[in-house]
Structure formats: C-alpha cells, structure tokens
Write a structure and sequence with these properties.
mainly alpha; two-stranded antiparallel ribbon
Amino acid sequence: MKRPPIRARPLARLALAMIASLLAAALPQVSTAQDTGYLSTVPNGNPELPFGARDRFDRVRFMDGFSSHFIISHDPGPQHPLVFLPPVPPILESDIPVLAPFDSGPPAPAELSAFVGELFYPFLGARLAGDELPRESRAQILAYRDAKVSLQDEMRARVLALKEASPEGRAEQLAALASRQAPRIAQLEATAEKIRADLRKARVFQTTDLNDKPVWHLRPLGDMPTDPAAELAESVAIRGDAFYQNGLSAAQRRLLLEAAIELDVRAKGERPDAAPGTSVLYFSPETSRIRIPVDLPEPLGREVSDYQAVKRALMGELREALRLSEDRTIDSREDAMEKLAAEEAPRIAELDNMAEVIRRGLAALPNPTGPPSSAALPQALVDRITAYRAHKVELLRKLRSMLTAPTPIPNDGRGPKGPAPDPTEGALAWMHDGASKTEIQSTELRVSVEEFDRLQNQLIEELNKEENGIREELAAYARTNNGPTDRKSINDLLRDFERARQQQEIWDRYRDYQTAVLMPGLSAGQRQLLFDGGIEALALPLPDGETIH
C-alpha cells in the first residue's frame, strides 16, 4: 500500500504561523511607541479613537507603522489682505502736509516710509501688515536699499562738488558719473523688479496679491468720464493696473501712475497753489510736477507742447491696450503687455531726451529759482522758535490721535441724497493755528469729553507760555537792533520769520526733488533714484490701508 504524497500545505501553514507570531510580538511595540509619543503632545488624547481622528490639525501625522510621515503647516495669516498705496508726490516746492487726512483703514506700517518711491510698495505693505515677510526677502530688500542709498549719496556728493562749475563742465562731469553708475543702476532696477515679482506671488493658504480685488475696468479713450465719481473710479482702475499688471516696464507703470494722479486731481477739483502767471507741468521723472511760466519763449513753449503730446499718446496707447486685453487670460495679457513695453521703449527714451531739452531751456530763463535768504535773527532765538513749532505740531498730533475717523456715508439710494462729507475737512482745520471755527463733536472722541478738554487745555497752556517767552525775547532783540524808523510789531516780526523759515525748510526738503527734475546732465536712471530720495525726504504722511474682502 502506497503512502499518500506529502503535501506542502501544512508546511506553509507552519511558516505562516511563525511569521504571524513574530509580527504579533513586534507590532504592539511599534504601535505603543507611536501612540505614546503622539498622545504626549495632545492634551486629553483618547486612545480609543481612530488614530487620524485624535487631532485633525497635527503638524506631523503618521499613517501607519511602516509608512513615512508628512508635515502640514497651518498658518492662517490675515483673513482679508490689505492694500497700501504710496502718497502722491506733491508739486515741486508746494506746501508739505503735516498731518494725513482722516482715513478709515488700518495705518500703514512705519517701515514703508523708506520705500515711498518703489513700485513694490503695495506688496511690501501687505506683507508687513500681515507679518509674513520672509527673512530672505527682508535681507534682499535691505541689501537693495543699501545699494540704492549708496548710489544716491554718490550723486549728491558729486552735485554738491560741481555747484560752482560752469554748465559745460558740470555736464561733462555728470556724464562721466552716469557712465560709471550705469551698470549698478541697471542691476538695481532688475533687483527692484525681482522684489516686486517675489512679493506679488500668492502663498498656498492665503495671498497678499489682489486675486480677489474689486474689478478694475478701464474705459475707452473715446468715452472718458466727465463727472467726478467716474473720474475717481477711472483713476483707481489705472493705478491698480500700474502696480498689479505683469508685463509692464517700470517706465510704463509710472506713466500710468501719472495719468491716475491727473484724473484724481481733476475729479477732486484741486487747484494747485501756483503763483500768478504760472501753470503746472507734469514732467520727468514721471509723477513729478513743476510750475512753469505761462509766457514761455516761443521755441521753448513749442517744445513743451510737443513733449506733452508725445506723453499723452504713450499713455493713451498703454491704457487702450490694457482695456482691450481685459478679457484675455492672465498669460495672454501679460504677453501683450511685454510686447507693448518693447514697442514703447524707444519712444519713452525719446521722451526723456525731449525733457532734457526743456530742462536746458528752463535753466536759461532769467531769474532762476534759488535758496531763500535766511531770517536775520540770533541762532538761539531761531532754535527756540523751531522747538516751539515742533511742540505745536506734536500737540496737533496728540489731539488728532484722540479723534475717531469719520465714517463715510454711502450715497447708494438708501440714505440721504447729496455728497458725502469730506473726511479731510476736519483734519485740515487743525492746521490753521486756531483760526478755524470747526467744532469737534463728542461722538468723534476716543476718550471722554472731560479727558479731551483737560489734555487740550494743558497742552495749549504750555504752548502759550513758550510763545510768550519767545515774544519777550524777540521784543528785546527788536529794541536793541531796530532803528527808530522800523515800526514793525512783534506779530509782524514773527510772521516774517515764519514765512522765511517755511521757505527755507521747503527749499531744503525739496533739494533732491529739484535736482532730479531740473538739473541738466543726469541720466534717466539717476533722475529716478534722486527723485525717489526726494519724495522720501518730504516725509509725507502715509495713506491708510484698504481692506480687500
């Protein structure tokens, strides 16, 4: 009788049993180590729950005992991105505002004051406000600023050294400086565009870009708005494209910003405080404005007209291209803008050449502008008056900080008709040295009426004591130094001094602005660097941010 054949199944079962026993001995140890480590970091962890349900927001989550792990970073960031726009450059040698008008948004980060001339200003503002500026970006921006300040200082030193040089000699020396600085300026411009592009990029879970911004639509050039509300809307649309549209050159962006400023000024009905017989010229670098005589010599007047016509044509082409490409895809629109930037580049360079001819013509006019004569008062008295003025401005700021910003009243048909109240009216009234009769309502105070009155009376009393001391010292000086025919009162002397002091301060603070705009011989890149430094030197109040929902 034959034995039945030996089957492999019992051997396989034996092998499987051995493997199972080994796994049973090993798996509990892995599971225990994993669970213990996890629960030690999760308060009130429940080992009875499935592993993945114990904490849905764990940064390091293990899938099982044999798989690798992955990391989930949860950084909620700001729920509503903020948009900060730089202050508008004023007309050359116009009054410099001390206080910003009341706005309803969050204040701009103080660090932005050093970047008011940069095209990446809105993106940097959003990153700083959201506390999401990476260390690498911060280091890159600081290095960029150091390089820019170094170039600006070189130009300032050279211009000062050539102060007494002849026009021909100054032009030759400035041309040599422009040639030496050209590679560094080109590198600086490339770095600025890279910073703008890097700061503009959206993050994974949130964004500081305006992907969800209000819709910006440009109107056809043949259908330009005439009512103030539509002009303001058009200005906002142009300014938005100037900062946020990819593919544009830096010169094109500044042309758009200048067009937005012109529309905004017209919409608000602002009248520049130009002297009689002068007009305002939007000049070069773009966004700068100067006053020129209305009765220019015929050749120079024709050159100014030609310059304005070429600039308007460039702006018109640019705006029309942006409007016609609104419905394109993002990449297609960017390609169209890059193509237009290449086409307009030679004409923009020619526009700079036309501006240089105008500068030489303006420099040749009789009675060129120069620094005002200083007030003839002892330096100790000058210092005392300067300190008094600084204390007065600080008083205004303290009182202003105790006021709430007025809430705009939308005219949407649900409320009373008529224009909304001007939010700047109350703020500007504070700058009239007490002559304004504007009353502050108790509902506009952040503090109690009693506290506001107490602090206001205290500060004004301190200022009055300081002013009385200055008046006594000024009276003693007048009795000692003025002749019998000089019958000016103390008020007249103070008024004359204040007028001279303001003129000197304006001249000093506009020094870079004036050099960048009016001195012949600088390159376009040098002018833009000095103009940026000039706007920074004005220390203009930074506009508040706008929340994008």
